Each structure stands twice: as structure tokens, then as C-alpha cells.
Amino acid sequence: MKGACYTLMIVALVKSVQCAIDPAEFTTDFWEDLSLSELEEATNTFENLKTGKAKNVIMLIGDGMSLATITAGRIRIGQKLGQNGEEYMTSLDSMPHSGIVKTYSVDHQTPDSASTGTAFLTGVKTRSGLLGVNGAATSCDKVDANKVTTSMEYAIAAGKSAGVVTTTRIQHATPASTYAHIHRRSLYSDNKKGPSERNCDDIAMQLFKKRRDIQVILGGGRSHMRPIGAMDEEFSSRGERFDRRDLIQEWQDDLGNQSARYVWNKAQFDAVDPQTTDHLMGLFSPYEMQYSLNRNTDKGGEPSLAEMTEKAIKILSKNDKGFFLLIESGMLDKAHHQGRAIYALEEFHELEKALNVARSLTDAKDTLIITTADHGHMFMIGAGGVRGNDVFGLSSSSNNPRKALDGKYYTTIVYGNGPGHAAKSYNKNAPRQSVQRWQSASKYYQQQSAVPLSSETHSAEDVIVYGSGPMSHLLTGVHEQTHIARVVQYAACLGPANENEPHCIENSGFISGTLIEENLLPRVEKDPRLFDESYGGTPEDDV
């Protein structure tokens, strides 16, 4: 029996909900019963490992989803449901397998989304700022010789359908990691090209050239696809392509039969019938989509991440050979950069809801689902908060806050650096601002940070990877981020290095993860990859 919840009204603007702790939690039996239940679940999980071939692969990326983000996000969701929050279980927490991956890039302790996306999609680490190439591709003329193949490209070659879903622009680093090969992640369109980059296709052009291979494209980024000066459907933004090509119109002209749809608003998106649609491109903003908290202010309306996930899976799953789908909660990263924790945790909740949809629409017997982050952020939760305290509230309790040594209140959530510098000034001698309850409850509040920066930064910490479905147990342990790509390709039999694995061959005698006869089939060695670590460079900022 859960503890009773009570509501306190603090001033006129803030509502704080706290629940009494279940008296059973003060007994030994409660925790022994809980631990035995968890042990039984873990035992059953490892006794029934799914070791067959993955027909489908779904990767959900929480951009900047650090461990602290997961913890705070879990509490936030639980509190929205009227619980204390700490005991809540998200859809991530119920994934059967998990591990830890190291996020550093070849040249940086603290990585960006381009190098990390390349790592978990190709199995090759690279420099910060590079997409789909190894670390030797430091200029346009070196790209072709140093390309590395992504898991999505291997899936397409195997006859599978493919899709990319994001809340950022579709040309941004993480979604672009599935299809682009470029020496500079900021080349969203050709208007950013320098004289030496004429022979390198920009990211939007690379996406357009794969229009027949990628069946679902959902996110923002209309301006990068339109000729310079072309007006946007709902904002004052204009197209920016110097080559004066309208890639959206060309996409429609090339695929424009009854089974291909381009949409830019919520009503058009809702009207798309997955059963009669084979290609869908939905671009809902000139650049990034709205934060989920601001979605109702969008002129044309935007679908949620969960809604886009559902539509994508229903379209892609019509392919008997399976599909590969990447889903990114990209605005989580943007919120952290702005030092706005309430926005960030709502974007975490968007990812959690999308994962629920993905799991409900697929079968763990043939679908490998991986949920992870590309990198962390300088985001922290703790500061002595009591059980059930408002995750955005004052510490140690919003109802009975504690003062720091400077005699001022402080919040449970803080950032290590960023625009919410404690003094709200770049004057290092300025006193720390006092925080009031009504301030910390505002969605616009920027949590205080120790170091004043115009934009909060990524962290160098490891991130968690969660998995369910075929071969997901291989994610267990501490690994390089490149291990994720290897597990995906091994599980789904993608690429020449895996095509002769026992579970990839029909009638091979491979049953429930074992061969009927030992050494029945030969194993092939993995193809060598070009990789050079002897260089330096400057990354693009992931903002």
C-alpha cells in the first residue's frame, strides 16, 4: 500500500505534492521481498536470453541523457503521477539488459554528438565534429577515402526499410549520423561551404540523394532543403540553398505518387494512413521543432515524438525483411544547453513515452530495441533533498528549505556550468542570487551553475545503454561506445562481417542460442577499418 499523498499550496503560484512514505518501507521484510523479486526477474531474464536474429532494429537516443537526467526524469514522471517519484519505474528501467559505454571522441575527453553518433552507428570512433568518417577525414578531399558504413546503410543494403525521427532538424548531428559522411557537421546546406568544399555534398543534399532508401523522415530542417529566399510555410524564415534547388519539391516530384507524402503540420501528419503510405517526409519547422512544453504555441501544430514513432513503425513494419529506425529526443540536449531543467526533463519524458510506443508495437522476439545517450551534460541532482521533495524545488525540502553558507536558499538541481551562473553576472565577485520557491517552479527558470558560460556544456561521463530483444544481453558490461554498433550489426546480421554467423543462416541448426553440433559453421573475421589516431583538430560546438 502506497503512502497517502497530500498537497500544499505555497503562495499563489506553486503547488507542491508530497506522499507519506509507506510504513512497510521501514521494515526488513519489505526490502527483502523486493530484492528477492528483482533477483527472480533477473534470473528469469538470463535463463531466457533471446539469441535469434533481429529482424528489426530501433535505436532511441536521448541527446545529452546523462545518468542524472535519467534519475531526475524518473522522479519527475513519478511526481506528475502523484507519487513521491524516487520509486517510479520508467520504460527505460524495465528494459531487461543494460550496460555502460565510454563516450570520449578520438581527440576530446568531452565529445560532441557527431563523433558519438558515428561511434554507435558505425563502430568507429572519430574526431569531434566529423560524421560517418574516421578521424583521418579532416577535409573535404579526404572524405571519400575515409568513409565508414553506418548500421542504417547496412540495413538498407540488406533490403530493410529505414527511418529517421527527431525533434531537432533532420540534418543535425545525431540523425545525420545515420546517413551522412562529412568532415564538418555544420554543413547543413550548401550556403556554409567554403571554396575547398565544393566537391562535398552538404548534409541536406546527402539526405535527398538517399530519398528512395529512407522511407520515413520526420523532424525539422525545412530551410536547409529550400532555395535561398523561399518563404517558409509558417515562420518568417527563408530557404538558404545557394544552388537554388528546392529539395522538398524535388522529393515530391520524384516520389510523388499516392504512396508518398510530404507534410509540414499536425493535421496533415494525422491524415497520413500508414497502410497506404510507403514514403513519408514530415518537416515541421525551418530548424528545430518546438519544445514539448511549447508545442501548443506552434502555428501549424506539431506531432509529439511518440506520435512520430508510432507512424514511423507502422509504415516501416510493412516490409517483410524488417526495418531500421533511429528516434532522437534531440531537444533534451538544447534544453540542457540553456540550463533549463524543466524543459530538459519534459523532453526526457517524451523519449520515455516514445519507448513505450516502440515496445508496444513490436515483438521482443524479433526486434532489438536500444535506448541510450550520445553523451552527458553538466547536470546534477541531489544537494540533500528529502524523499518526495519536488524535483525542481528548494533543498532539502521546498516546505522547509535549508540555507547555504551565504544565507540563501538553493535548489535540488544545479548545473556545473552554464547561463544560470549563481551570481547571474560575469562579475566573479558578485554575490549569489537568492532563489525563491516561485522562481524554481517556473518552466523558464535557469538553475544556478557554478561556472558562468553562455551555454552549458556536455560532460565527459559514461552513459547508460539499455536493450531488449535479440542479442541485447551483449550490451551488458562496460564498453566503448563503438560496441553498440557491433551488437546491432551482429544481432541483425548486417554487413559482410556477420553474414555467416550461425544465427544469421537459415537451417543452420542454430536453436535457442546454441549449435546442434559444435563448430558446425565457420565464423568470418571482421573487415579491417581504416583508423588513424595521430592528429589534432578543433570540433564544432554541439549547440
Automatic annotation (TrEMBL):
Protein origin, superkingdom: Eukaryota
InterPro entries from the UniProt entry: Alkaline_phosphatase, Alkaline_phosphatase_core_sf
Tagged with keyword Lipid biosynthesis: no
Keywords from the named record: Signal
Family matches, as CDD domains: ALP (cd16012)
Stretch forming the signal peptide: 1-19
Family: Belongs to the alkaline phosphatase family.
Protein name: alkaline phosphatase
Annotated organism of origin: Clavelina lepadiformis
Upper lineage: Eukaryota, Metazoa, Chordata, Tunicata, Ascidiacea
